[in-house]
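Schema walk-through. Below, the input block comes first and the output block second. Nothing else is stored per chain. Lengths vary across the set, and this one has 96 residues.
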Amino acid sequence: MTDSLTPGKQLYNAARDGNIEGMKLALSRGANINWNNPNVGNWTPLHVAASRNKVQSISFLIKENADKNCGDKVSCTCTLYSTLKILQSVMLTLII
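--- output ---
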């Protein structure tokens, strides 16, 4: 993780990569669990984790109270994206 990144961007990147320790570090630095990435359609860390089938990241984010119903800039939720991609393991993690 690069120190020049904001805690929100650090959290987003760690969620994208499936890096649980990186997510913990970003949260300890004050990252908003529902941070929106303005460069990727206002996706949250949960959106990117779902899109990449990072089930451990998804579980961690949900345990940390990430909003499963948070929409991106076109009001699509991570649950909708996972359904559209037919990622069953992600979908099951999101609805539990």
